[in-house]
Amino acid sequence: MRNSSKRFLKFGAIALTTGVLTLSAAISHAATSIRLSHPAPPGSEQDVWSNEFAKRVTAQTEGRVNVRVYPANQLGDIEEVYELVSQGVIDAAVQSFSTKYDKRLSISWFPYSVSTYAEAESSWNDGGFIFNEVNKLLAPQNITMLAPYAVGMGGMAVGSSVTNPADPDAKHSELKIRVWPSAVGTQGPVLERLGYNITTMPWAELYTGVQTGVIDGMIGGTPENAVRDWNGIVKTWLQINNFFEVNSLFVNSRKFKRLDAEDQQIMRDIAAEMASERFQRVAQADEDYRKQLSDSGVEVVTFSDDEIAAISKAIRADVWPKIKDEIGDELYQKLNAHYSN
Prior knowledge:
This protein is an alpha/beta fold.
């Protein structure tokens, strides 16, 4: 009886120890959940891209990292989500940056910092000039950018015809063009240099603004916006390439650093791969949307490489020195040295 009790106690101790070890192993290998927000509607190209990122991460980490996508600003608007990612309340997002805490992040839409798809890809992809500079600015905010999500090349939508738009010295004083409020210090001088009058107006009021003649046109969008948001009021689309619209896949730095080094690298590799895939897609996507505009009766004006180069040169020479305070002198000097001819 005594020996039986000893054997029972010994077996129980072994079972308990084994159970503890199994539980510890399970805890140490428990999946990390990442909530990823983005502002685009379900089924949009950005939503599909975000879900594909989530799918690849889960597969390649063998379930150690699970990404759940929340589209259409379900977790808050862009400013709210940006702050919540910085605080670690939300883990990740695919959206634009906020310049609330560092206005130098307006490098994202600094005019003619890139003016072609090739320049955009080389500058924004992992290791590129803008990619590296942006991550330096994000570090104090506890945010790490993993990859750009290329949205499209910016242009101008106008409710009438435009005479001689390829000439950077032409005058268009009869046209009042809307600039989005946070970019009035950068994009406003661009339009003024190109001969237009400017005003600011919220996005939600643009359709009615053009329809009623309060404004004649607007910048702050891509060919997709012209098709999706301004259908019926756009008479002319000018592909002036004044900025390249980029949303970015970024994560809370502390959350990211808590992942195993292997999983961090897997996520970086997937992000870089998908960023490159998106750059291959975006030029064709813009072209497809411009064709939709043309098919609907909109005059679509594109420019030759030489014409874009002439406009870029004029803006870099005449406008950049006036707006350099928007990104700070140090970053401006780097940008000027990197891009100006």
